[in-house]
Specification:
Low-confidence stretches: none
Protein name: Dihydrofolate reductase
Strand content: 15-25%
Distance between the termini: 15 Å
Helix content: 25-40%
Number of domains: 2
Oligomer: single chain
CATH class of the largest domain: Alpha Beta
CATH architecture of the largest domain: 3-Layer(aba) Sandwich
Structural class: alpha/beta
Radius of gyration: 21 Å
Largest sheet: 7 strands, parallel
Mean pLDDT: 95
Length: about 300
């Protein structure tokens, strides 16, 4: 049991999960606003040995140094790699601090978002229509860049709808290729397809000036990553100098507030993965991580 567990900001736990926190700590402190700076985070953590946070705050080396009692950090948000995390995991590990994050809790909503927006644009159900005549997904050449969980779900959904699917990933996905989703090197993929979906880890920028040039004009781009998958200026040039359209759900995925008013940018400025079901899955995984921490500790 933790001596003190601090939730330093809103972490989207459902009420049942929030109540369960009291089973794992002698004292639980929950903050319902985002700390304004590093000093505020240090103050909130204080002498706590357990900490929960979301993606809206960062725990770096200085905070870890100033809060020596921390034994466990639970990230109530996606953790793909130490490099892309909003916790300094390498420093934490050196200090013997266990850091657990979660994955794959909001992907279903993201898939529904891209399917909805793509169909609306192809058919002209909204204010815009891609071509002169409405189009189905049938035979549409689609490239998915990053075939993790969400990328794979998007690719398989569009394949089911009759799309001609290609992918690029750091590692080959033989099981997806067996389903007819074809691998191409990035440059070849960009030249081949009419629509791309970038489904990448945070802080990975693949779409730069050269890549947009290869992708060409009259094209569609969706970014489903947490942050930009593109160089901001390169995206702006691509949008300004061709009949191209860009889609994303959140400002974080767009990367620049000024682009919200661009006529070829379609950004809802809300996370499509934040659904009731996603909060249920998130809460379950956060509690399971705490239980795993104590189970591993007891087995040492």
């Amino acid at each position: 049991m933790f001596e003190k567990l601090v939730v330093i900001e809103p972490v989207s736990l459902i009420p049942e999960a929030e109540k369960k926190l009291y089973n794992y700590a002698k004292e639980v402190v929950i903050y319902n606003d985002i700390p304004k700076d590093e000093e505020e985070i240090i103050k909130r953590i204080g002498d706590a040995d357990g900490v929960l946070l979301s993606y809206t705050s960062t725990i770096g080396k200085n905070i870890l140094d100033k809060c020596p009692n921390i034994k466990y950090i639970g990230m109530c948000c996606s953790l793909y790699s130490p490099e892309s995390a909003n916790v300094d995991i390498l420093t934490a590990n050196k200090k013997g601090i266990v850091v657990y994050g979660i994955r794959d809790y909001g992907d279903e909503g993201v898939v529904e978002y891209v399917l909805s927006e793509l169909i609306r644009y192809l058919h002209g159900f909204g204010e815009k229509q891609w071509k002169e005549l409405p189009l189905e997904i049938t035979d549409l050449k689609v490239g998915v860049i990053g075939l993790g969980t969400s990328g794979s779900m998007i690719a398989n959904t569009l394949k089911y709808m009759g799309g001609d699917l290609y992918y690029f990933s750091r590692t080959r996905k033989k099981e997806e290729e067996e389903k007819g989703i074809k691998y191409l090197p990035l440059d070849n993929l960009l030249k081949e397809v009419d629509v791309i979906f970038t489904c990448l880890n945070k802080n990975i920028i693949l779409m730069k000036e050269k890549e947009f040039e290869k992708f060409g004009n009259g094209k569609i781009m969706f970014n489903t990553s947490i942050g930009p998958s593109h160089d901001i200026e390169a995206l702006k040039n691509w949008l300004d100098n061709g009949n191209n359209e860009f889609f994303c759900d959140s400002l974080g995925a767009l990367g620049d507030e000024k682009l919200l008013t661009h006529p070829n940018v379609n950004c809802m400025n809300v996370s499509s993965g934040r659904t009731k079901q996603a909060f249920d899955r998130l809460s379950k995984k956060v509690i399971e991580n705490i239980e795993k921490y104590f189970e591993n500790k007891n087995n040492q």
